[in-house]
Amino acid sequence: MRAIVLTSPGPVGNLEIRDLPLPEPRPGEVRIRVRAFGVNRSELHLRLGYAENARFPIVPGIEATGVVDLAPGTDLRPGQQVAAMMGGMGRAFDGGYAEYTVVPRRQVIPFRSSLPWATLGAVPETLQTAYGSLTTGLDLRAGQTLLIRGGTSALGYAAAALARSMGATVLATTRQRSRLAELAADHALLDDGHIADRVRGLYPDGVDAALELVGTPTLPDTLAATRVHGTVCFAGMLSNQWTVPDFYPIGYLPDGVRLTGYGGDATSLPPAVLQDSLDRIASGELSLGPVTVYPFDRIRDAHRDVEENRVSGKVVVLAP
User: Fold this and answer.
1) Domain 2-123+288-318 belongs to what architecture?
2) pTM value surpassing 0.85
């Protein structure tokens, strides 16, 4: 099979297309014929050397969408449409950047859809993180206000769409004036790093909930935009900065504002939620934002464009 191999952390040139042996699944594992996979910040961090417990060389990719090829000792059958994500994919073992990938059954979610693979490939990990951030991370309720810091990211678009369908009022930010009109939000804000005063101009007590997708550089300002007893969920690192040096909680956190985090796993996305979301996308009722599609041979271009923030929304690569 053809696969994309990251030889070691470094520039995009360290991503090489190679011929590898077809992986053999053991009982309880699923071999998937990959049709499409998303390019995520997680894989960018891996390439830049910011991933813990990763081995090299490795086939990256924390998600993949395709059809079951073999699934010994499981309830899945060949030809069944599936999505796989997380659980060590692309770090502890070879991931989705390949024609075939083998993953444990628990990381696989079956679905049924006539959507094109370019659309399906954009959904799994983005939906899982957006859904989990809003429910587990924020416990978002209808009628609440939600600030999304990093609104033109794939996760930002998805979170805004889900939050509005839940009955929340959404404020979303972007650093680029040209993308303000793209934001799927009730209030679009140009982000210069300091937006708390503008948020409180709209909602003097602060927002009920905030989803931090930029990272630690904007986290204090996001906390300052949130009301007492409100919640901020840290779920993204678009800035590639995710640690707070010399963290002093009492000095860092505003009085009464809660800070949570969310990462999630395949088991965090109920199959019914995935199926319902795909059905709503197919009917036009739901959109998770723009998708930019690359052929397999242009993986370096895809990574470069993500790293340099040349694209908004999700980047998807079609497998050969």
Assistant:
1) Alpha-Beta Complex (3.90)
2) yes
